[in-house]
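Lay summary. Proteins are chains of building blocks that fold into shapes, and those shapes determine what they do. In this project we predict the shape from the chain. Here is one chain we studied, written as its sequence of building blocks.
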Amino acid sequence: MLNEALRIASAIKSPPPAKVAAIAHLDQDQLRKDLNDRRTLRETERELASYPTFGTLSADTLTTASALGRLPLLEIYRDNTPPN
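And here is the predicted shape, written in a compact code that computers can read:
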């Protein structure tokens, strides 16, 4: 992991001219948002990969996992469970 971090740091210090030109013309706020979205996606993919019960990662799997995370389970439980 340290080697990867060092490789990335050295690449950032001297990026290829084509990449500098492409990045320089982007809106900084949009670039920041896109980079944050990319990080979030990578974190989500990494978390999903740590759960083998989800099977092979696909767009359908990600959509289903996201939908399950948004279910109001506590409210559903309260609505369907009789009081003591």
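What the prediction tells us: Residues 28-49 form the longest helix (22 residues).
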